[in-house]
């Protein structure tokens, strides 16, 4: 499995989890904290402190998850990718056992960001797409103006396509079996953890 393909699968995992959380929470996100931050500001502006509290908790848990992922990666050393993914599997499995509880899902998505940051020379964003699209657009601009001769920027589309594919898969599965759809990313994360444990670390 190449680094870029791995990035695509990890983004697909994030997309699957995020859309399941989005559908369960009625419009809030478990990995897209830019969207949650906008909704937090809107809730505060409208004086809806109860809603703001719910959103703020999600954002706080995501930060805690990101910190936990970094800690796991630091202690795991050269096998950090596999161990971060094992952590994600455990958190998602806990969410499934608790009936698609959002708290462990948010922690898992925060931790996932510690798994892979670059695919070779290409920066990778797993749980948000704004950075991917900005880099894609900037690369396109550089290519059109002759500042870049190689279309390497096209590879930025791989994580984006992976995320969208994961969102579609998660939506279809949720529509089919409801909250039990959370077991799909548990299985996907488990497969990725097993694959990465059997291969050299990409970073």
How many strands, what sense, and barrel or not for the largest sheet? 2 strands, antiparallel
Beta-strand percentage? under 5%
Into which percent range does the helicity of residues fall? over 70%
Average per-residue pLDDT, rounded, comes to 88
* Rounded Rg: 17 Å
Structural class: mainly alpha
Query: How many helical elements?
Result: 8
What report would you give on this structure?
The protein contains 8 helices and 2 strands. By secondary structure, it is mainly α. The chain has one domain. A two-stranded antiparallel ribbon has the order 1-2. A hairpin with a 2-residue loop joins β1 and β2. α4 runs antiparallel to α5. The model has no long low-confidence stretch (mean pLDDT 88).
Concise description?
By secondary structure, this protein is mainly α.
Topology:
Layout: H1 3-25, H2 33-45, H3 49-76, H4 80-97, H5 102-112, E1 118-119, E2 122-123, H6 130-144, H7 157-177, H8 183-197
Antiparallel strand pairs: 1-2
Helix pairs in contact: 1-5, 1-7, 1-8, 2-3, 3-4, 3-5, 4-5, 4-8
């Amino acid at each position: 499995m190449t680094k870029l393909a791995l990035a695509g699968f990890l983004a697909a995992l994030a997309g699957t989890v995020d859309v399941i959380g989005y559908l369960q929470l009625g419009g809030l996100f478990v990995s897209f904290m830019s969207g949650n931050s906008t909704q937090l500001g809107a809730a505060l502006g409208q004086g809806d402190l109860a809603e703001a509290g719910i959103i703020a908790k999600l954002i706080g848990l995501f930060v805690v998850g990101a910190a936990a992922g970094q800690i796991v990666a630091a202690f795991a050393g050269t096998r950090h990718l596999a161990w971060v993914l094992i952590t994600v599997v455990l958190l998602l499995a806990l969410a499934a056992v608790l009936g698609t509880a959002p708290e462990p899902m948010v922690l898992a998505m925060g931790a996932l960001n510690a798994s892979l940051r670059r695919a070779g020379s290409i920066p990778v964003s797993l749980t948000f797409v704004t950075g991917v699209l900005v880099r894609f657009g900037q690369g396109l601009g550089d290519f059109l103006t002759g500042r870049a001769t190689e279309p390497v920027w096209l590879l930025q589309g791989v994580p984006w396509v992976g995320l969208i594919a994961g969102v579609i898969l998660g939506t279809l599965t949720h529509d089919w079996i409801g909250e039990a759809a959370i077991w799909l990313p548990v299985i996907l994360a488990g497969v990725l953890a097993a694959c990465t444990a059997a291969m050299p670390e990409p970073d």
